Amino acid sequence: MDVEKSSNSSFEDLTNAEDTKDIRAAQSAKSEKPATFDSAGASVAPDSDYDPPTGSDSESENECDVLGNKQLVKRIIKQAPPDARRPVRGDLVKITFTGKLDDGTIVEQEQGFEVHVGDFEVVHGLDMVLPMMKVGEVAKVQLDSRFGYGSTGLKKDNESEPIIGPDAHLTYEVELLDCKTEDFADLKTFEILRKYGIRKKERANYFYKRLEYNNAINLYRRALDFLDDRDGDPDAEFGKEDLELSNSDLQTLLEDRLIVYNNLAMAQIKIDAYDAALQSVEHVLRCQPNNSKALYRKGRILEGKADTQGAIKLLQKVATLEPENRTVQQDLARLFIKARREEHNEKEMYQKMLGQAKKMEQKTASRQKQPLVDNSKLKLLGYLMGSILVGVAGVAIYRYKY
């Protein structure tokens, strides 16, 4: 992630460390306020959005500008015990938080909320700050819309007015209640595995609806980590022999997993990752050969890979499985038109090739009439052009006859 440099720096052209020290000293002598410097040692001029800390050393230590550009700022409100641990990526943490707009309106509030660090299960800015906190710590986090809900904002389903408007700045007060690194013993039960898998899937669906396909793909893959590990092969061993799962539990997890693979394929299609999407739908079709969603998405993939005829065959099969599906009928009609256009373009291409071969043969014949040219060479060239013409004609005739 790129860190923006401060646009207020008045000494960007200084590269000598000694010159920078001299300027610092001069600024300190001219003003009672201490000068502030960015990470490169350049002076930062205060503006309307920047109020340099003037409190005690302990107060400045409690505030952290995470990226150095004021877009994500963390300030400790309550210190954690000295021996408290920090979470790392993948840890399960329990947090309580409240999110507010600049006018003080509460837009988010959770008590004892469980998330895995780094899995985007909370707003991005909070997810980045959690590894910087300790258990028992309370912090205030101010974040730019870039690390909140962006230009899209947030609104509930079936509501026109957003809860959080586009480009809104947010302030969170968050407390880290608990932190745990899960091991195999924590992931043995059906309830836990399905709970985590479904939670990741729902969060991935949220990102998909926001058109944030890369985040959706990451969350779908995380969901697959918890929903069975047989990659859609019903004949494979489960691989974790001492899991406390019955056959019905395994079947339920497998069905959930196939749903996730279908959704993953759709997100991969959206970013034109056709090879990866093809692998995802094949996991589904291996277990459910007549899964209409997987067949339809495979048809979309083949179309993206320029296999129009293959896409038509798959969508025809979907049409027999779902004869009332108007979307499939419309896509089939579009593909038939596309196939005819491609066939017409191929015919034109072969005709041009034949025409060029004939022109070359005519040029060769005209050159044979010139007395200064070696007739033996011209005859050899004529034979060569004739061979090319016969070959091209043969390919064209075979292509359109068979």
UniProtKB/TrEMBL annotation:
Keywords annotated in UniProt: Isomerase, Membrane, Repeat, Rotamase, TPR repeat, Transmembrane, Transmembrane helix
This enzyme's EC code(s): 5.2.1.8
Sequence ranges of Polar residues compositional bias: 1-13
Top-level EC class: isomerase
Domain PPIase FKBP-type, chain residue ranges per copy: 90-180
Entry GO MF terms: peptidyl-prolyl cis-trans isomerase activity; protein folding chaperone
Superkingdom, natural source: Eukaryota
Stretches the record annotates as Disordered: 1-65
Bias (Basic and acidic residues): 18-35
TPR-type repeats, residues: 258-291, 292-325
Protein's recorded name: peptidylprolyl isomerase
